[in-house]
Amino acid sequence: MAPAMFDLTGKIALVTGANTGLGQGIAVALAQAGADIAAVGRSDPSATAESVRAHGRKLLWVERDLDTIQPMPGIIEQVTGELGGIDILVNNAGTIRRSDALDFSEADWDLVMGVNLKSAFFLSQAAARWMVAHQRPGKIINIVSMLSFQGGIRVASYTASKSGLLGLTRLLANEWAARGINVNAIAPGYFETSNTQALRADEGRNRDILARIPAGRWGRPEDLGGAAVFLASAASDYMQGAVVPVDGGWLGR
What we know:
253 residues; alpha/beta; 7-stranded parallel β-sheet; 7 strands
């Protein structure tokens, strides 16, 4: 396949949670492929901005709290107003709470479901409304999880939210494919991020996880870049409702 199929020059990509970790790796990869970036979140994405600009692309920081859906229309209005449109949305922002299911609190349930599932849906809705109104094709990429396929332990709301997000990926693909909007997902395996710090610090859990990964290591944020560029580019124009595992072979074990 020609490199032009993966060229994102002139595209505008909105990435939530792009200040660190997986979101940072995705944003930088999209910029390397030619896209300008809108980074949405609570924390200043200065390190991401430096990398994006080093590749000659723009980065707009949209400071918003994704714990509520109230800012969703305003996010799209700011991005399209300042950058000229939106072509790609990556719903990456997420949070996690750990507790035994017998003790799991309603507050931890609501917080995780709100950020990981509810906000992702309503930001997708706001972006798609703009794309449809302007007859502009688009790509939406949801960052799901290994726990979209498996149960896990001690992360009830995280498992529920990521399973739900994979289901929403398929539903939105069904509704929006005919409108020129591709909706797909990436399922990262076990990556070196702040969300997995507790697991990596637990000697037993860390050992058990690494023993299950054929690649023999935790993923690094840059490992997601290729899949993100693929799903954001013309190379994936006939993909709808798909999920691409980037897991070092975890699911194949």
